[in-house]
Amino acid sequence: MSQFSDSRLAQARIERCWPYPVARASRGVDLEGGHPDAVARQARLALELTLRTSIALWLPAYLRSERVAAVEDVLAGLHKKPTLGHYADLVRELGRALATEEAGPMAEAASWLFRGTRATEAVAALQALVTSRNFDEHGTPLVARG
């Protein structure tokens, strides 16, 4: 298969599996053979959009449920200009809180991070992505909280 076809298949998968803002951010980038800087830039944008989209969907559901100390701690620690690490922490803790809920669509959505109270591989992958992004941006492997 040609590189163009591989990229179109990858793009189709992204558009089918990810929320619209994330899928839109990946358009126009040759994911297979594009310039490494452009691919890395788009990957960082997709990560940030994934985190922010998850928060936009999960925070209202959380606010309608019983409060959880870990989520409240992250919310209280947000600064005027939250970092990617803050967003990752909030997504992780919202996912943990919502995945333990007995009903509702957000419990199913949060299950990509947690199955009940047990973390999935996605938690480690999210932490690795944030750590990698921090190294790329700051030259220092700032570690995401676990």
Strand count, sense and barrel status of the largest sheet are: 2 strands, antiparallel
Tally the helices. Answer: 7
Helix fraction bin: 55-70%
Q: What distance lies between the first and last C-alpha atoms, to the nearest angstrom?
A: 40 Å
| Shape label | globular
Tally the beta strands: 2
How does the helix and strand content classify structurally?
mainly alpha
Instruction: Outline the low-pLDDT stretches.
Output: 1-5
Gyration radius from CA atoms, angstroms? 16 Å
Q: Roughly what is the average pLDDT, rounded to an integer? A: 75
Strand order of the largest sheet: 1-2
Oligomeric category: single chain
Order of helices and strands: HHHHHHEEH
Beta-strand percent range? under 5%
Would you give an account of this structure?
By secondary structure, the protein is mainly α. Helix content is 67%, strand content 3%. It is built from 7 helices and 2 strands, in the order H-H-H-H-H-H-E-E-H. A two-stranded antiparallel sheet has the order 1-2. Helix 1 packs antiparallel against helix 2 (20-26). The chain is globular, with a radius of gyration of 16 Å. The chain starts with a helix and ends in an 8-residue tail after the last helix. The model is unreliable at 1-5 (pLDDT under 50).
